[in-house]
Amino acid sequence: MGVSEHEKLTIKEFFDAISGVEGHYELVAGVAYAMADANEAHNVICSNVQTVFVPAGKHKGWRTTSSNTAVQTGPTTIRYPDVVVDSGPANAAAMTASRPTIIAEVSSPGTAVFDCGTKLREYQGVASVDTVMQIESGIALVKVHRRHKSGTWTEETIEEFDVAIPSRRWQRSSR
């Protein structure tokens, strides 16, 4: 089965359709959309983020994964963030993160508005997500959105990169 853009799909049909297919797709309200390939600058930023998150996550039993880990943001919506920290139980056969906690999106000039609007709201709607990082690829700028215990979100802009891991749960000494 190939990927048929603009045809309504269930999540299972979507995963079946993209299995073995070249290119990246996301499912939005049941419709598959092709995503642009990343350039080297984008990939370097993603690699740097993973390099920071992997050791600390492993210590807690969490997994840090790349853009091939899906996050279900709605009943018929699947997104592929650039970096996902999954704090849930491991399942090698799973198609989605079991408990996404930190999400990092690296934006390009063409995706920044979309990433800062629709995608951000979707990620904030996932109960387990407590931190969303939006990284601008063209300039040294990171926006960190944090969920507080009250359920409210705050935004912090970071322009210096010698900072601690942003998730409040990450800071806890044990799981």
Commentary on this structure:
The chain is an alpha+beta fold. The chain folds into 2 domains: 1-35, no CATH class; 38-158, tt1808, chain A (Alpha-Beta Complex), CATH 3.90.1570. It contains 3 helices and 10 strands. It has helices at 11-18, 40-60, 112-124, and strands spanning 24-28, 31-35, 63-65, 71-74, 77-79, 83-86, 100-107, 131-136, 141-147, 153-158. A 6-stranded mixed beta sheet has the order 3-6-7-8-9-10, with helices on both faces. The protein has a two-stranded antiparallel sheet with strand order 1-2. It is globular. The mean pLDDT is 85.
What is the string of SSEs from the N terminus onward?
HEEHEEEEEHEEE
Which percent bin holds the helix content? Answer: 10-25%
CATH topology title of the largest domain: tt1808, chain A
Give me the CATH architecture of the largest domain, please.
Answer: Alpha-Beta Complex
Keywords:
tt1808, chain A; alpha+beta; single chain; two-stranded antiparallel ribbon; 2 domains
SSE topology sketch:
Blueprint: H1 11-18, E1 24-28, E2 31-35, H2 40-60, E3 63-65, E4 71-74, E5 77-79, E6 83-86, E7 100-107, H3 112-124, E8 131-136, E9 141-147, E10 153-158
Parallel strand pairs: 7-8
Antiparallel strand pairs: 1-2, 3-6, 4-5, 6-7, 8-9, 9-10
Give a quick rundown of the structure.
It contains 3 helices and 10 strands, in the order αββαβββββαβββ. With 175 residues, it is of the alpha+beta class. The strands form 3 sheets. The chain has a 6-stranded mixed β-sheet with strand order 3-6-7-8-9-10, with helices on both faces. It has a two-stranded antiparallel sheet with strand order 1-2. A two-stranded antiparallel sheet has the order 4-5.
